[in-house]
Design brief:
Elements (H helix, E strand, L loop, with lengths): L4 H12 L8 H9 L4 E4 L7 H10 L3 E5 L3 H13 L7 E5 L5 H12 L3 E6 L1 H4 L2 H8 L3 E6 L19 H8 L4 E5 L4 H11 L5 E4 L7 E7 L3 H11 L4 E5 L3 H13 L4 E4 L5 H12 L5 E4 L12 E6 L6 H8 L9 E7 L1 H11 L4 H19 L4 H8 L13 H4 L4 E3 L1 H13 L4 E2 H9 L4 H5 L16 H13 L3 E3 L6 E4 L1 H8 L5 E3 L6 H19 L5 H18 L3 H4 L2 H10 L4 H5 L6 H21 L17 H12 L4 H8 L3 H13 L7 H7 L2 H14 L5 H8 L5 H14 L3
Parallel strand pairs: 1-6, 1-7, 2-4, 2-5, 3-4, 5-6, 8-13, 9-11, 9-12, 10-11, 12-13
Antiparallel strand pairs: 14-18, 15-17, 16-17
Helix pairs in contact: 2-3, 14-15, 18-22, 19-21, 24-26, 24-28, 31-35, 33-35
Bound molecules: adenosine-5'-diphosphate and magnesium ion.
């Protein structure tokens, strides 16, 4: 079929409204129109859909588009219908969600030749009645979208995809176009073999996304870190990926509590809620969507400014696809991943329930992710290398490792040792195995090959296996080593590697940070201190002592005990978060709004002056408020006390002991909420007793401790009385 460039371009404009083709689109479309099998490797957002939509509209017959997700299909069909003013191209979809009448309608349109594009779910393609129908249709071509689903080595294997080739044979051969955004050399070869399109013309665009910044952070205080990051990027759209639904819900809640507009998205939500949440994100009604990987297929929001992986993805393919949703408009966007080896171990454990072959594949893919997370090399280079693409520069300047390079050394001896080991073995082995042998660790695999008896076993034991894996990865990046495609991931020495071996040149390896025992302990202390800082304690000691002096002053002036003004935990919080407004003061422990206004002014003034004098950057956004536990009970208690219900009745209504209720009330009051318990106290406790206990707290006590009060007041006063009057005192005087 002959179609010249002018016609194609005018169709592009009329059907889709674009002025020019993007990347290889035109060449791809021509190739297909010429009747040739076509294989398109293009990153997410590259414009793959147009490569089959446009030819479908200009070629005679109906194009069959095989696509894995109903949501995705609906979205694409809607897009085309939007451009359908002249009633030329009609798109339909066929999947298990359609009712009988709808199916009949689709069939009529297909048979009468009105339908130009028929989207089919892979499982529908295997149904006999659909096959029979399609046999009678003039088919222009078959498009296999998300073609990596064919391969077990892709990140989203779907067994139905394996049967596509047979279906095509049965229905009748027509040109095939396969498209994917994620194809390692292994997946690429699987796709071509499986579809029987070994001779297809391959169009591979660069997978580099120069506007994306990649960073991997240690997963320490990740929630706090995420909240800070988002506060630093107000109003920007972002996606946070978590592996579990539970974590999605928790994170979304936490963000909202901390003033960030976020919504959850996962497969456990009903379809309506999911669609609503997605729309609100697209419409920018919320800034952040917290999602499991289920979110994003076919989503086309151009200005996603950050993608955060709270959990490490299971494969680089998944990671690349998810990060690929950032910055589609070409403007800068951040991709931040939180990594801890513990998460990897968790993922490995999850895999144990799966068939052995799947486990093996899963582990391999996971190890690639580990290598990526742990590398000190340019992340972009590593990613592109994974997809079989060479990144020409050593330093991309837009990833954490390039911006903050780690110290390196001349590692030619080490690389030679790697090569010597590989050459000395009769068959090829995977990275981990080689690393274990070099570092002298006899795991089961090493033993089963009796590699613990090799002369080179432990030859590099001055380094860890992690170091050796990193070195081997560096060898891959430098093309001294290669990875077998068929027997996935076994390492061989390339020609260049042989040259290097006989006559080595300088290569840089990253120095291993070997933590001494002391450093490990210090690390742990740091983490503990960090945690303590979150709880209170460990703030600015100078400020803390100034605050304590001020409190002493005020207590003399007001004739109130210091702790009544502000407790120690409150002062400690102030020394950490430097509050300079009533609102901020209010977020310190035990400081209610009333107390903040009553006693806070001088504290705020002092902190303001201190912050200015010492040029302190206030970490206001560090305060992570956590979700209040059992908040339903608390709200009920507060409301019931307001309505002056007897405490016994409140306890009974919530099915709790009186003891527990008082504890809860103490908890509520300690966070600064005032409760008026006089109605109950007046009725239950003798007036004189109330006065005695009240006086004790006002004039004698050195803290609000109930134990101390019991000691001081003696056996004439019951504990419950003391506790209730203490609450009255705290609410009336101390808050
Ligand atoms: P992919 O399937 O490769 O991830 P899509 O087909 O969903 O990408 O297209 C990504 C975006 O690029 C869409 O918003 C699409 O409208 C847009 N697009 C595609 N082709 C062109 C073009 N020639 N000119 C401008 N925008 C285009
Ligand atoms: Mg697509």
């Amino acid at each position: 079929m002959e179609i010249d460039s002018a016609i194609l371009n005018s169709k592009l404009k009329t059907f889709f409204g674009y002025d020019s083709f993007k990347g290889d689109q035109e060449a791809i479309i021509r190739n297909l129109i010429e009747g040739k099998d076509t294989f398109v490797l293009m990153p997410t957002g590259g414009g793959k859909s147009l490569c089959f939509q446009l030819p479908a509209l200009v070629m005679p017959g109906t194009a069959i588009v095989i696509s894995p997700l109903i949501a995705l299909m609906k979205n694409q069909v809607d897009v085309i219908r939007g451009f359908e003013e002249e009633q030329l191209g009609i798109a339909h979809f066929l999947n298990s969600s359609l009712g009988k009448a709808q199916i009949q309608e689709v069939k009529n349109d297909v048979l009468s030749g009105v339908t130009k594009l028929l989207y089919v779910a892979p499982e529908s393609l295997t149904k006999d009645e659909n096959i029979e129908l399609l046999k009678d249709v003039h088919i222009s071509f078959y498009a296999v979208d998300e073609a990596h689903c064919i391969s077990e080595w892709g990140h989203d294997f779907r067994p139905e995809y394996r049967r596509i080739r047979d279906m095509i044979q049965t229905i009748g051969r027509a040109p095939v176009i396969a498209l994917t955004a994620t194809a390692t050399p292994k997946v690429q070869s699987d796709i071509q073999k499986n579809l029987g399109i070994m001779d297809a013309t391959v169009f591979k665009s660069s997978f580099n996304r120069p506007n994306l910044y990649y960073e991997v952070r240690d997963k320490v205080n990740a929630e706090k870190d995420i909240i800070r990051y988002i506060h630093q990027h107000p109003g920007k759209s972002g996606i946070i990926y978590c592996l579990s639904r539970k974590k999605v819900e928790e994170t979304s809640n936490l963000l909202n509590i901390n003033g960030i507009k976020a919504l959850p998205y996962h497969a456990g939500l009903d379809a309506k809620t999911r669609a609503e949440n997605q729309d609100r994100f697209l419409m920018e009604d919320v800034d952040v969507i917290v999602a499991t990987i289920a979110f994003g297929m076919g989503i086309d929001k151009p200005d996603v400014r950050f993608v955060i992986h709270y959990d490490i993805p299971k494969s680089i393919e998944g990671y690349y696809q998810e990060t690929g949703r950032a910055g589609r408009d070409g403007e800068g966007a951040d991709c931040i991943t939180y990594y801890s080896y513990k998460d990897i171990q968790k993922l490995e454990k999850f895999m144990l329930g799966k068939p052995i072959s799947e486990q093996e594949i899963g582990r391999q893919l996971l190890m690639e992710t580990v290598a990526y997370a742990e590398t000190s090399q340019c992340r972009r280079k590593m990613l592109l290398n994974y997809f079989g693409e060479d990144y020409p520069k050593d330093n991309c300047g837009v990833c954490d490792n390039c911006l903050h390079p780690k110290p390196t050394f001349d590692g030619r001896k080490e690389m030679q040792l790697v090569i010597r080991l590989i050459k000395s073995l009769p068959e090829h082995f995977k990275i981990e195995h080689l690393a274990m042998v070099l570092s002298g660790q006899a795991n089961a695999m090493v033993k089963s090959y009796q590699h613990d008896t090799l002369p080179l076993f432990g030859e590099g034991k001055n380094h860890s296996d992690r170091f050796w894996s990193a070195a081997i990865h560096q060898g891959l990046l430098l093309h001294l080593l290669g990875k077998e495609i068929e027997s996935y991931g076994r390492i061989y020495v390339t020609e260049k590697g042989e040259e290097f071996y006989t006559d080595p040149w300088e290569i840089r390896l990253v120095e291993e940070k070997v933590l001494t025992k002391k450093e490990v302990e210090e690390d742990e202390e740091d983490a503990a201190a960090d945690k303590a800082a979150m709880r209170g304690g460990g703030g600015d000691p100078v400020l803390l002592s100034m605050l304590k002096n001020l409190r002493k002053d005020m207590s003399k002036r007001l004739n109130l005990q210091p702790w009544i003004i502000f407790g120690d935990p409150a002062l400690e919080d102030m020394s950490i978060i430097y509050p300079i407004s009533f609102n901020e003061l209010h977020s310190c422990q035990g400081v209610g709004e009333g107390k903040a206004r009553k006693y806070g002014k001088e504290f705020i003034d002092l902190i303001k002056a201190y912050v200015e004098e010492n040029d302190i950057t206030r970490p206001a956004e560090f305060i992570v408020k956590s979700a209040p536990a059992r908040s339903a009970d608390k709200i009920y208690i507060i409301q019931s006390v307001d309505r002056k219900l007897a405490l016994e009745d409140i306890a009974a209504a919530r099915g709790m002991e009186m003891e527990k209720l008082i504890e809860d009330i103490e908890g509520i009051v300690s966070t600064g909420t005032k409760l008026d318990l006089n109605y109950y106290i007046q009725q239950e406790i003798d007036e004189d007793i109330v006065d005695d206990i009240f006086d004790y707290f006002k004039n004698e006590a050195t803290s609000d401790s109930v134990e101390e009060a019991k000691q001081a007041l003696g056996p004439d006063y019951e504990e419950m009385e003391i506790r209730l009057v203490r609450l009255k005192f705290l609410c009336e005087v101390a808050s």
